[in-house]
Amino acid sequence: MRPLVMGIVNVTPDSFSDGGRLTSVQAAVAHGLRLIEQGADWLDVGGESTRPGAEPVSTAQEKSRVIPVIEGLSAAGANRISIDTMKPEVARAAVKAGAAAWNDVTALTFSPDSRAIAADLGCSVVLMHMKGEPRTMQDAPRYADVVTEVSTELGARAEAAMAAGVRRDRIWLDPGIGFGKTAAHNLALTAQLGDLAALGFPVLYGASRKRLIRDLDVTATDPSDRLGGSLALALEAARQGAAIVRVHDVRETVQALKVQAALTGALPLP
Q1: Distance of CA 60 to the CA centre of its chain
Q2: DSSP SS3 for 37
Q3: Of 36, 51, 197, 204, which is most buried, counting CB atoms within 10 Å of its CB?
Q4: pTM of the shown model
Q5: Distance CA 44, CA 240 (A)
Q6: pLDDT grade for 205, boundaries at 50, 70 and 90
């Protein structure tokens, strides 16, 4: 079995790769439906950029960006929608609008109410690792052993979520590629993703178009020119046991994963 593919639907003006491209609800819904046609198993809708240096937005502003899009996608038949937010109020509104998962870059630590609300909502929850917060996370991050520290911290966050009532089978873990990590940290986490998967939770991996690729290829200055690197990282994550890959380029990623699965015998030939 290949990993599931989560397509990115950003409705922010300042996301690092595609900010400002989807300027209306109609455009965002059409983009999401197009990603499903291309093979996306999930759609991840986000209304607040978490790129390095990003400034926060208000709850009201974030809701105004994402809720109409989720409602439109749900009305069009999309039933695997994730809300990418750290705010529990936004997550609650998103689930009411049709979202089935909450993707939280703070691993349910942004608000004292986050874990209880996640338990009450009963949706799937992605717990992501981030060192610091978006405005400062790339200011010389340091670890003694990044793989061990990230796995330990995410394991603790999962235990805290379950203690608050979140069901174990609703929890996914994300190592947070690019969130308070150097290129060396990101490569180590990718190469040893199996250590995180060994905790027994599905692992979501997201490195699509990220700065890591530019760090390895200085010609890839524009995020839209990082397809090759994005595919290489997604394939390695799949090889290391990722259950879900979060990507911008759905059609190409699905094709690459199908070929990889055929090569390894995980996918029968037609």
Answers
A1: 22
A2: helix
A3: 204
A4: 0.92
A5: 22
A6: very high
